[in-house]
Amino acid sequence: MHTQPDHAGGLLATGGPTFPRGVALLANSLLNKGTAFTEAERDALGLRGLLPPRVFTIEEQLFRVYGNFSRKTDPLEKYIFLTTLQNRNETLFYRLVQEHAEEMIPIIYTPTVGQACLEYGAIFRKPRGMFISIRERGRIAEILRSWPISDVRMIVVTDGERILGLGDLGALGMGIPVGKLSLYTACAGLHPYYTLPITLDVGTDNLKLHEDPLYIGLKQKRVRGAEYDAFLAEFVDAVQKAYPKALLQWEDFGNTNAFRLLHDYREKILSFNDDIQGTASVALAGIIAGLRLTGGKLSEQKLLFLGAGEAGTGIADLFVAAARKEGLSEAAARARCWFVDSQGLVVRGRPGKLAAHKEPYAHEHPVVATLAEAVEAVKPTALIGVSGQARAFTQSIITRMAALNQRPIVFALSNPTSKAECTAEEAYRWSDGRVVFASGSPFPTVTLNGRTFVPGQGNNVYIFPGVGLGALVSESTQVTDGMFLTAAETLASLVSEDDLALGRIYPALSKIREVSLKIATAVAAQAHREGLARVPRPADLEGDIRSRMFEPVYRSYV
Are residue 181 and residue 319 in the same domain, yes or no? Predict the structure, then answer.
């Protein structure tokens, strides 16, 4: 992996350093510089007359595109503007995102990407990545060969069944892999040349999409069971053969498939599930950092989760690993994690069969029906929302958490913003400013009793780009739980005293590239410690990784 691949864009002639010319060059988003092509480049590459005569610097281009972006008032229109820029000139796109990270990341990812996915069919302009449908079963290897780049290193794949908190969006979920890979480049410096977003279209059970004339996917019910498993097995096998050094990131699969796919493939192909493991790592980092405000040890905390799916049980599993590191037994650590699902408190002996991933957290306790009753019964130090149930953290629940704890931890992590369990303003106001708060989507600052709070965003963007980069540069054979634990600890250590003074338990997004570098370094070091790295460890691991990170600057063609 290099800052600039030898065959940028995958379109260089095989016999030498000959670039596409003329219109073909301008159409290649990885190579296009637009009005920044120099006079010499215009002559050498057949661009004379295809561009306005004045040559612009990238700084001057940035001034123009940021001005155009700023004039748009609707977030979805801003998203469309940015995706159009990305499809035209990726270097300029990433320069814009990098220089205005706090403003751009909520547009290219949460919360705006949720609305973009809902309307993906209506706003569809140009395909990006690959759509592989169940109709292509038996031909996946052939289809992957259609991709113009042979050295893919990072794939984000979804089947669209559980897009954020929005449910089954089928092929409209492509906005998620595209957005995540954009963040890999913007936040961790992974060259876009190496990235490939993929949507596996196995149908959708969202009947409204079957009736939508603009829906871009298969209008059929979801394929499940043995046929689905065979399709996924063929896909994984084809990826391994086509891209042997690639990392496969599972994204927004339904609960049943997500746990099963992670279990079945995590030791067979370099892969991880961001909804389970990335969410766990960023949430654990927030708890660790939050303890600097609340006091106490991690192993002394009692966690109550609203939502017992991928995110919640993933957080609990990583919490257990961290608590065991502090000396608790596995059983004692699990006993500190409680869950409320759609049937109430998850306990042993409750009517109905529990899903396998819930069973380790089903404790001996009388049946409790509601979240409010569960708070009273469990008396948690931390309340974590991963349910997609908007406003489930009511005033009475937050007030009770504040009565039970001097500094209650409350995380409303569901995305997008419309699905958050409470707003930052509600959490601070109902706790009289004592809450340690984080959310999945960004909320504005809150002023209460003369004090200004900057709520932290417990977004996976703090974790997955660095984890992926660390695994790739070390050429690890697996992405382990130990890597996500060290990522969480590293992220927590990067929260400054100034951040904490504002009530923020994550670093500012403006520091995201440095955060990703530190996490990548820690993850790569963990890969070497675990004996999973396939390359020697450099003497200066961080320096080596920094030197590989893509910088959005134009290359010279002459």
Answer: no
For residues 472 and 286, the answer to whether their CB atoms sit within 8 Å is no
Same-domain pairing of 233 and 309: no
The Cα 61–Cα 33 span in angstroms is 10
Domain count of the fold of the chain: 3
| Six token digits for residue 256 | 């049943």
Q: Rounded to whole angstroms, how far apart are CA atoms 542 and 10?
A: 28
Strands 344-345 and 436-439, how do they pair?
Answer: unpaired
CATH number, domain of 342, equals 3.40.50.720
Query: Would you call 384 helix, strand, or coil by DSSP?
Result: strand
104 in the same domain as 159: yes
Question: Are 516 and 465 a contacting pair, CB within 8 Å?
Answer: yes
Which of 211, 240, 269 is where one domain is finished? 269
Q: Which of 433, 409, 438, 435 is nearest to 507 (CA)?
A: 438
62, burial (CB in 10 Å: exposed 0-12, middle 13-18, buried 19+): middle
CATH of the domain at 26: 1.20.1370.30
Burial 426-450 (b: 16+ CB within 10 A, else e): bbbbbbebbbbbbbbbbbeebeeee
Rounded distance, CA 201 to CA 261, Å?
16
Q: Is 328 left (phi over 0), alpha (psi -120 to 50) or beta?
A: beta
In three-state secondary structure terms, 551 is coil
Q: Domain range for residue 15?
A: 8-56
Which residues, in sequence order, are CB contacts of 295 under 8 Å at separation 6+? 407
Position 486 in a domain: no
pLDDT digits (tens, 9 = 90+) for 498-541: 999 999 999 999 999 999 999 999 999 999 999 999 999 999 99
Strands 154-158 and 195-201: parallel
Q: What is the pTM of this model?
A: 0.94
* Res 439 pLDDT > 60: yes
Residue range 66-119, pLDDT digits in tens? 999 999 999 999 999 999 999 999 999 999 999 999 999 999 999 999 999 999
Spatial separation of the C-alpha atoms in residues 189 and 461, rounded to whole Å: 13
Q: Which amino acid is at 278?
A: G
Is residue 472 in a domain?
A: no
Residue 215 annotated among the catalytic residues of the structure: no
- Annotated active-site residue 379? The verdict is no
Question: Which of the residues 109, 194, 215, 243 is marked catalytic?
Answer: 109
Q: Which of 340, 255, 356 is nearest to 305 (CA)?
A: 340
Q: Which of 412, 432, 462 is the last residue of a domain?
A: 462
Query: Same domain, yes or no, for 37 and 118?
Result: no
Which of 33, 78, 180, 419 does the annotation list as catalytic?
180
Considering the domain boundaries, does residue 75 fall inside one? yes
What CATH number should be reported for the domain holding residue 167?
Answer: 3.40.50.10380
Identify residue 4 by its one-letter amino acid code: Q
Same-domain status, 120 and 233: yes
* Tokens 């959708």 sit on residue: 204
Does residue 501 sit within a domain? no
Q: Do 168 and 317 share a structural domain?
A: no
